[in-house]
Write a structure and sequence with these properties.
Layout: E1 2-4, E2 7-9, E3 12-14, E4 17-20, E5 24-27, E6 39-41, E7 44-47, E8 51-56, E9 70-73, E10 76-83, E11 89-94, E12 96-99, E13 102-107, E14 114-115, E15 122-129, E16 143-159, E17 161-171, E18 177-182, E19 187-189, E20 194-196, E21 200-202, E22 207-210, E23 212-216, E24 227-231, E25 234-237, E26 248-258, E27 262-264, E28 269-276, E29 280-281, H1 285-288, E30 301-302, E31 307-309
Length: about 300
């Protein structure tokens, strides 16, 4: 067990327990190295501050290190100070991000952290990979993998390629949002040694659900080709959140959209796809239905009583 008030090291590899009180863990690497400024958590990180920032290496917008680093969580991150839902925030900055463990928060009057839910959720979660926010020409060069169920008021992923492998991102509270800022082209996932052909992939039985979902393709540098998306999971509006919602899914600068999951819109929901340069289809749909009819090769759009598509 290690008790710290902020921690800075060449690399951080935690298989035990880190108790932090100040809200920042930073890996800066070793001078002259070309990699290794990693943060790896297979144990438990207990945080008493309302916000926790995890900064791995140089490929971030907030770390002065010159050594690249990856972040991987297969353990548990606990916010241990009891608070109302929507108080805590988690920020992760790295060249590549693997969010495969769990995040927990401590409800008001509780004595221990509990799994996130629609009533016990984060305020913000940011997963930023391989992007220098201070540079207008910086490309999104990293990979983000999510294998966890994360509930938050606002979720944002910046990545060359992002994958929701299991679980998903779930909006909670009033007026929830989820945003993706994507790169283009192929990327190699260092956690699975896999070549990724899609810039956003939702695997089967996964969900991104919020009152307002924005997907921005080909964001950096300006004029980059559009992004490719696979939706075997579902982009969904407003099944978890309460209160006033936009009930909108917006996709901008997308080339192809493939997949068998598609979209689910609440009543009066909006699906807005701007600057589509390729196709929207489900190339395996007919085969899965035991048919040769092209009508099965569609990406599903499930709607409430009334919805709008543009």
């Amino acid at each position: 067990m290690v008790n710290v008030a902020d921690l800075t090291a060449g690399a951080i590899n935690n298989a035990g327990v880190i108790n932090d009180t100040a809200g920042t863990l930073t890996a800066v690497g070793v001078a002259g190295a070309t990699s290794g400024a990693d943060i790896t958590n297979s144990g438990v990180i207990n945080e008493t501050a309302a916000t926790l920032s995890l900064k791995a290496g140089s490929s971030t917008s907030t770390n002065a290190s010159n050594v690249p680093g990856n972040f991987s969580n297969t353990g548990v991150i606990n916010f241990t100070t009891a608070a109302t839902a929507g108080t805590n925030s988690l920020y992760v900055y790295a060249q590549n991000v693997n969010m495969a463990g769990s995040v927990q928060a401590t409800p008001t009057a509780a004595t221990a952290a509990a799994p996130l839910s629609s009533t016990n959720y984060l305020n913000n979660i940011y997963l930023e990979s391989g992007y220098n926010a201070s540079s207008s020409t910086s490309a999104y060069t990293g990979v983000v993998d999510v294998s966890s169920s994360i509930y938050s008021h606002y979720a944002q992923i910046d990545a060359g390629a992002a994958r929701i492998l299991t679980g998903g991102l779930y909006g909670a509270g009033t007026s929830s949002y989820a945003s993706f800022y994507l790169g283009n082209g192929q990327f190699t996932d260092p956690f699975t040694n896999t070549t990724l052909n899609y810039n956003l992939s939702l695997f089967p039985k996964t969900t991104v659900d919020a009152g307002y979902i924005d997907v921005y393709g080909g964001r950096q540098p300006t004029g980059s080709p559009n992004s490719n998306i696979n939706l075997d999971g579902v982009l969904s509006t407003n099944t978890q959140a309460t209160g006033s919602q936009s009930n909108s899914v917006s996709l901008t600068n997308i080339h192809n959209i493939n997949g068998s999951g598609g979209f689910t819109l609440a009543n009066n929901g909006i699906l807005d796809i701007d600057n589509l340069t390729g196709n929207i289809n489900n190339p395996n749909g007919a085969a899965a239905a035991g048919s040769t009819a092209f009508q099965y090769n569609n990406v599903p759009v499930n709607v409430g009583n009334t919805s709008t598509g543009t």
